[in-house]
Fold:
Amino acid sequence: MKKHDKIFVAGYKGLVGSAITKELKEKGYNNLILKGHKELDLSDSFAVSEFFSINKPDYVILAAAKVGGIYANNTYPVEFFTENMKIQLNVIENSYKYNVKKLLFLGSSCIYPKNAPQPLKEEYLLSSKLEKTNEMYALAKIGGLKLCDAYNREYGTDFISVMPCNLYGFNDNYHEQNAHVLPMLLKRFHDAKVSNAESVTVWGSGKPLREFMFAGDLARAVVYLMENKTAKDIGEIINIGTGEEISISELADLIKEVVGYKGKIVFDKTKPDGTMRKVMDISKINSLGFKAKTSLKEGIKKVYEDFCNNLTH
Structure:
């Protein structure tokens, strides 16, 4: 990519998109095409086609998606499938139609089967059944990556699909029910600290193991791949993560420490745990020259400081 190339970051206001936009700007890319949902509805096929015909981006980073945690995925499966499929189909189809040089599609680690061997290797995709609580979101993401691969095989495009682990960072969603586990717990512990609550409730047993990566590290990986690698280098998909895992119980303890909450932690075992272990095999991305650098504690400190600063604005 050249510094003056037109780069369309779809979903630039979200957790991932904003981190990628920040990384691109810091590296000197000065011709970014940024549109929020109110300006461009990516689920509207006519609007997306018109946008591509007018703007003709050279590169596309597809970070836009309808996302959420276990509760949201389990409660709104139709919306998670249909909205994501519409967004993906419209952006990928028009990227081909308007001769985009390279597209990068962001998937999710939930594409892998519930009982796949750990750590999760790229070749485990579709080897067995998915986790039921986020099955429809996973199917939508699988549809997106398979469509990218199909375009590459049939039309010789350069469409890359990357699968990040659980992410956290600035501009995250802190909704009490629809957020992912880390931001949800951060807000829950903060609110408990402010209100002097005796305890904080955490869903599930606390035993599931998860991998968390600071969104800024993912952004570095995305820009690195866009600058240096092709779909032929990567194959159908590539994992991006830290390779380190932590239990939900340990995560809760860490967030409690960072926030400075002094009360108790209570686990509600009537709530679902989801997949019991989910850690990515990152040997492929490491072999291509990228490694994450932000420790979990360091990242949570950054995010909590940002969270507190935004409370006063």
Observations:
- The chain is about 45% helix and 15% strand.
- The radius of gyration is 19 Å.
